[in-house]
Amino acid sequence: MRTQVAIIGAGPAGLLLGALLGKAGIGNVIVERSSAAHVLSRIRAGVLEQGTVDLLRSVGCATRLDAEGLIHEGIDLAFDDSLHRVDLKQHAGGRVVTVYGQTEVTRDLMDARSASGHSTIYEAADVTLHGIDASPYVAFRSDRVDVRLDCDFIAGCDGFHGVSRQSLPAAALRVFERVYPFGWLGLMADLPPVNDELIYARHSRGFALCSMRSPARSRYYVQVDASEHAEDWSDDQFWDELRRRLPEATAARVTTGPSIEKSVAALRSFVAEPMRFGQLFLCGDAAHIVPPTGAKGLNLAASDVHYLFDALREFYEEKSAAGLDAYSTRALARVWKAERFSWWMTSILHRFPDQGEFGERLQLSELDYLTHSEAAMSALAENYVGLPF
Ligand code: FAD
Ligand code: DHB
Known about the structure:
Bound molecules: flavin-adenine dinucleotide, 3,4-dihydroxybenzoic acid
Low-confidence stretches: none
Strand order of the largest sheet: 6-5-14-15-16-13-17-20
Mean pLDDT: 97
Strand content: 25-35%
Number of helices: 12
Distance between the termini: 34 Å
Radius of gyration: 21 Å
Oligomer: single chain
Number of strands: 20
């Protein structure tokens, strides 16, 4: 097989890049390790920045998002037994976020791809990358047949555990990493959310987040030790722990019931530099991870894709490699700002094993300052709604 751009991974990064390239008439094939059903079964992000929504609109994949996505103009921070609202719209020049699940984004992109006729190979086994320096190709097995896919470029959109980054010589990459000693236990339930807007709660027992997917579907998270397993938590234990960490009046309003999913996500900050090596370009979680507190991971994948698509279009339409040469520097400038924001949100809201009473007081003082200073609320809001691409 031969194509212009071989895309590894059919997560949001790979599917969005495929949609943009397809629309511009640039040939591409997506090679995905799992089945489509498995990709859709992973419950992850829920908050989309305006830039991400605009990209989805530009490829005609926002009909359902525009109909069903929930526009959020503010968030609540919970501490000291009360809620403190931050008006995002007011503090971020009229910009807002949209609550719409990653599963739904992925489904919309998959449906559009099936209709477009561009090829996606699911359940590709033993995917390997070759000739990254000059003449790249991807090898894999599909339905027990060995396939070689030659291409001009490879886009590594295969997430943190993917093969793309691991195909680079160790000396070619510089890695920056921080692993947090806790994770998030998430619960999804077909029950009305406790609040119209998201609540990020700091409590001496640990962080909690009240989110949603629709007016009838709640998504909640509680900070747990990194060694915890979702199977060890009954729904009742989860609801009890969540309510303990919320202001009393809010806790009293939580509608509880059976969950439809529970899972634990580890928290990590990670950046691999550079994001380009020869003809291979890394995008999204393949190159960087943020802790989920700032809701930035999927949105960063989208901004990487925007930069890479721009560069590839320039290459094919204008015969210029300038954009490709600038890709890593351009993408990393935005990545590091999101790394900083996500680290900061994590550090003011979570319980750290070594923080002590001094650390607790600093967190409370930071939150008090944050919710009473126009300047601090503006800094939070402009990052939360997303820095410009
Ligand atoms: P992925 O979604 O990981 O997709 C990579 C794809 O590559 C997968 O389909 C995988 O099967 C495939 N693959 C892997 N290895 C191979 C291989 N060897 N060969 C072929 N294919 C391969 N982000 C936000 O912006 N907002 C949020 O609110 C938010 N909340 C989150 C909450 C949780 C609990 C978690 C865990 C994450 C959250 N994120 C959030 C982060 C977001 O989900 C990720 O950043 C996003 O999925 C990254 O997309 P991606 O396409 O780069 O990678
Ligand atoms: C969700 C996840 C996040 O990481 C976040 O900051 C906000 C919402 C969610 O899954 O709904």
